[in-house]
Design goal:
Strand content of chain B: 25-35%
Shape of chain B: elongated
Largest sheet of chain C: 2 strands, antiparallel
Largest sheet of chain B: 6 strands, mixed
Structural class of chain B: alpha+beta
Shape of chain C: globular
Distance between the termini of chain C: 38 Å
CATH topology of chain C: MetI-like fold
Number of domains of chain B: 2
Number of helices of chain C: 14
Order of helices and strands of chain B: EEEHEEEHHHEHEHEEHHEEEEEEEEEE
Strand order of the largest sheet of chain B: 6-7-8-3-9-10
Helix content of chain B: 10-25%
Chains: A mainly alpha (277), B alpha+beta (390), C mainly alpha (301)
CATH class of chain C: Mainly Alpha
Radius of gyration of chain C: 25 Å
Largest interface: A-C, 94 and 94 residues
CATH superfamily of the largest domain in chain B: P-loop containing nucleotide triphosphate hydrolases
CATH topology of the largest domain in chain B: Rossmann fold
Order of helices and strands of chain C: HHEEHHHHHHHHHHHH
Radius of gyration of chain B: 25 Å
Strand content of chain C: under 5%
CATH architecture of the largest domain in chain B: 3-Layer(aba) Sandwich
CATH architecture of chain C: Orthogonal Bundle
Oligomer: heterotrimer
Number of helices of chain B: 8
């Protein structure tokens, strides 16, 4: 395949992907309240954002929910990954496997509706939970568990199974094997899973809408209701802030990872030249 | 079953304990360390990986399980380590029944084929790992780790991580780690499998020296005959889950008990024939290609069908017909395979059978004098063969 | 506290805990809710608790099933059209994503090795920034006095703004935009692991690059194509946010219908019935996806 054609194609796709983002950022500095007509550069929308207590409260709520749902997702996702990779046979394995991959593709509206109906039944029966923070948390945790399970499974499968046996051979009881050998090696995947599920939760509109209660509006819910009504430059400001934070985090982690990789390659090469002397 | 020699023809090589010559018969300490009774492992209801195996290993022995893939040697090793539970049978270590004891409680350690070093720990921590599980006091741990590092000559590399070491160095760490807890029994899973030929030779000797220095009893698993013969004091040849023969390396090599064992180890020519004369001091066997005169009595009868196993290195080649009436045959040189140190000649006999004869290249001009197409005579002496019933 | 822990450790094998915990979690949050959806779809709005469904006559339980919602679904042609329309949009989205994403993943996999992590990061970066905000951004781009129209007008290319917004076009733009990374990632994962030696073997045997692509590369990337397609198609069928923000009155999507039945009409049984039928429609693709996932699990073990 023609190299020039390939490069052109890739560049066009990147432009397609980034065009909306770039526009958002540029117009967040637009003085005009007509979002799409540029007048002059201004920071007024950021000022408005700082004063927008509803939106800021929503951001805060979203961060809290995202944090805890990510923790729960990694917790349950790791269990799931272990159950599916370490035990080849048990009754109901196919069911577990299907249940854990279903949330990955099931349309949000169905997940939201079904969870809500279940929680309402639970409320009739037990008296709790009230719809609010906890219910949103549960919904996000369910979704997150499915994603975390994929990430952790992938890493578990790559790991050398003999390491567990070596640890047992040297005197580790099964839980110690997990704590001393598996967990440290799993850590990068756990961090990945945490970040992924954090983002998923922070970004979610549909589940939150179904599962929240009065007084609990997440950031996406607020933005969504405003966006339905029309264009709003404060949204641009929030968008730019989000994009900036995420971009810095992603780029920093990417640089860190490639540095670590290069360092490691150097060490391995060094070992070989040492041995050949 | 080998037809045993009635005259004193059993291994008469002197028992030496020089570290370099490990294939000699070892002085056997009578103390039994490992006893396996009737071990069987069945998978999925019908696949028998290990079939009713019993064996004993004495303290200080290096015992090799030799066989091809699928023969069950790795399964047996894993049962000794505790990673698999036997379907039937018992395992005793120093008299104690360990069959139901989990791996992490057995005083047995294993050196894995792929080393299985913990990538997130330094060399020092890898070796100390097992010691920490025993609640050893910190200064004691340090002392033991240092002495292990010295044993494998890796003291300078203590703070490195496994990916910073070469393959040979990683192997030494694996060895040090497996010896750190002074196990009663050391298991080695294809210890030299990952190394190239030159490194393998060097490492074989080092490995055995270290094992002897420490004085630990070993069971090793390998598919490489050379490895088994150079390292072990006793070999068990395995096939399809059972032992075909157990003996010292020279016993297994020079006195195989069946065609299968004879063929498995090294090269062998097997002649089919019938016993003609059966005396107490000699036997003659008539084969299609030649007449064998065996210089000792055997426990068979006239008229019995037997196989005569003759190893290529025991055959001598010449261009002139030998004068006596037995222990020679004639054929055409159809192939010459040059190995550098020796050459193997493939001789097609008049009957159509092809035999292999091996000659040392002890002069530099390959002056065996034979070339493709030549008519040659292969001859051997009367103690060079083994007579086999099956 | 340690006593409880020790008791657990000695009496309940780790295996049961490791399997039991996620099992219960998913049963409670994934399986049972779907059953409840089914149940509620078969009841009336006023009586949505389980016990109201089952009544006892002469000692034998009779289950009262109310098919009103389903009858309504099948008689009102709008629903049928909406389902059809949703599937069509999802299908078109999948095809476009494949058409754009496959070459992209292919070229990315063939790029210099040291560049690939960065290229991958650049694809993932938009994914990490809020999806909602990016859809909103398209709105600002495509509205009549939006950025695209303004730029085109100021450049003199057009005189009147093109009505892009609230059309099937804008919906598809939004859909393709959101789902493209989900198509690219599995494809890239698959193509980057493709052993170059297969292609070399084909060349050695006299196959032109073009034919090698069709006869070797594409079949070998089948798993990636299926994974990517399922990851796009299945959720796209029930998509709500994008049609709501970028679609219009003539873009019928079943996700919106479900939402409206629930939030606007407050008709839970109806919403549930809509959901049940939606699930039936995506059952086959989901089965394909599940099979793919468990194959992945087996392949590497």
């Amino acid at each position: 395949m023609n190299k020039a054609f390939g490069r052109a194609w890739m560049v066009m796709v990147y432009i397609f992907l980034y065009m909306p983002i770039v526009t958002l950022v540029i117009y967040s500095f637009n003085a005009s309240p007509l979002v799409t007509v540029w007048t002059e550069a201004s920071l007024r929308w950021y000022v408005a954002l700082a004063k927008d207590s509803d939106l800021i409260a929503a951001v805060w709520l979203s961060l809290k929910i995202a944090f805890f749902s990510a923790l729960m997702s990694v917790f349950f996702g790791t269990f799931t990954a272990f159950a599916l990779t370490r035990y080849k046979r048990f009754p109901g394995r196919t069911l577990l496997s299907s249940m854990s991959s279903t949330p990955l593709v099931m349309p949000d509206v169905i997940v939201g509706l079904s969870l809500l109906l279940m929680l309402v039944s639970l409320q009739h029966w037990l008296g709790f939970p009230e719809r609010g923070l906890f219910t949103i948390l549960l919904g996000h945790a369910l979704l997150g568990t499915a994603y975390a399970a994929v990430v952790v499974t992938s890493r578990l499968q790559e790991m050398d199974g003999r390491l567990d046996e070596a640890a047992m051979d040297l005197g580790c009881r099964p839980f110690q094997v997990f704590r001393l050998v598996t967990l440290p090696l799993l850590l990068p995947a756990l961090v990945s899973a945490f970040l992924l599920t954090f983002t998923l939760s922070f970004d979610d509109v549909v589940l939150s809408s179904f599962l929240s209660g009065p007084g609990y509006s997440t950031m996406p819910m607020v933005i969504f209701s405003r966006a339905r009504l029309g264009l709003n430059p404060t949204i641009n400001a929030v968008a730019t802030v989000t994009i900036a934070v995420v971009s810095i985090a992603v780029i920093a982690s990417s640089i860190y990872q490639s540095r670590a990789e290069r360092q490691r390659k150097r060490e391995v090469a060094q070992a070989y030249s040492d041995a050949n002397q | 079953m080998a037809i045993t020699a009635t005259a004193d023809a059993a291994s008469t090589s002197p028992a030496t304990t020089s570290s370099a010559n490990t294939s000699a018969v070892r002085k056997k300490t009578p103390q039994e360390l490992l006893r396996v009774e009737g071990i069987t492992k069945v998978y999925d209801g019908s696949v028998k990986a290990v079939d009713n195996i019993s064996l004993t290993v004495a303290t200080g022995e290096i015992f090799a399980l030799l066989g091809g893939s699928g023969c069950g040697k790795s399964t047996l090793l894993r049962m000794l380590a505790g990673f698999e539970k036997p379907t039937n049978g018992k395992i005793f270590l120093a008299g104690k029944d360990i069959t139901d004891i989990p791996a992490y409680k057995r005083p047995i350690n294993m050196m894995f084929q792929s080393y299985a070093l913990f990538p997130h720990l330094t060399v020092w921590e890898n070796i100390a790992f097992g010691l920490r599980r025993d609640d050893m006091a910190k200064p004691d741990i340090a002392e033991r780790v240092e002495s292990m590092l010295g044993l494998v000559q890796l003291t300078k590399f203590a703070q490195r991580k496994p990916h910073q070491l070469s393959g040979g160095q990683q192997q030494r760490v694996a060895l040090a780690r497996s010896l750190a807890k002074r196990p009663k029994l050391l298991l080695l899973d294809e210890p030299l499998g990952a190394l190239d030929k030159k490194l393998r030779e060097k490492t074989q000797l080092e490995l055995v020296n270290i094992i002897e220095e420490v004085g630990v009893t070993c069971v090793l698993v390998t598919h490489d005959q050379e490895e088994a013969m150079t390292m072990a004091s006793r070999i068990a040849v395995m096939s399809e889950g059972s032992f075909m023969q157990v003996g010292s390396p020279d016993e297994v090599y020079e006195m195989p008990n069946s065609r299968q064992v004879a063929d498995f180890i090294g090269n062998v020519n097997i002649f089919d024939g019938v016993i003609e004369e059966d005396e107490s001091d000699h036997v003659t066997i008539r084969c299609e290609e030649c007449l064998h005169y065996v210089g000792h009595g055997i426990s068979g009868n006239t008229g019995m069908s037997v196989g005569v196993a003759l190893r290529p290195e025991k055959i001598m080649l010449s261009k002139e017909q030998p004068t006596n009436g037995y222990n020679w045959c004639a054929g055409e040189v159809i192939e010459i395979v040059y190995f550098g140190a020796h050459t193997t000649y493939h001789l097609k006999l008049d009957s159509g059978k092809v035999i292999k004869a091996q000659e040392l290249n002890n002069t530099r001009d390959l002056s065996c004098g034979l070339t493709w197409g030549d008519r040659a005579y292969a001859h051997w002496n009367d103690m060079a063969m083994v007579v086999l019933t099956h | 506290m340690t006593n409880i822990f020790n008791y657990l450790r000695n009496h309940i094998p780790g295996r049961q805990i490791v399997i039991g915990v996620p099992y219960l979690w998913f049963l409670l949050l994934a399986a049972i809710p779907l059953l409840i959806v089914l149940k509620i779809s078969l009841s009336e709005m006023e009586s949505t608790s389980v016990s109201s469904m089952i009544s006892w006559t002469q000692g034998w339980p009779t289950i009262k099933l109310n098919f009103a919602s389903y009858i309504f679904l099948s008689t009102d042609p709008l629903y049928f059209e909406t389902y059809l329309s949703s599937i069509k949009y999802a299908l078109v989205t999948t095809i476009i994503c494949l058409a754009i994403g496959y070459p992209f993943a292919y070229f990315m996999a063939r790029s210099p090795k040291h560049l690939q992590p960065m290229l991958l990061m650049l694809i993932m970066l938009p994914f990490w920034t809020s999806f909602l905000l990016r859809i909103y951004a398209w709105k600002t781009l495509m509205v009549n006095n939006g950025v695209i129209n303004n730029v085109l007008i100021s450049l003199g290319i057009i005189n009147d703004p093109i009505a892009m917004m609230n059309t099937p076009f804008s919906l598809l733009v939004g859909m393709v935009y959101s789902y493209l990374p989900f198509m690219i990632l599995p494809l890239y994962a698959n193509l980057s692991k493709l052993d170059v030696r297969y292609l070399e073997a084909a060349a050695d045997l006299g196959t032109s690059p073009f034919r090698t692509f069709w006869l070797v590369t594409i079949p070998l990337s089948k798993a990636g194509i299926i994974a990517g397609s399922m990851l796009v198609f299945i959720p796209a069928v029930g998509e709500y946010v994008i049609p709501e923000l970028l679609g219009g009155p003539d873009t019928l999507m079943i996700g919106r219908v479900l939402w409206d039945e629930f939030f606007s009409n407050n008709d839970w049984p109806m919403a549930s019935a809509v959901a049940v039928v939606m699930i039936l429609l995506i059952l086959l693709p989901m089965a394909i996806f599940n099979k793919y996932q468990s194959d992945q699990l087996e392949a590497k073990s």
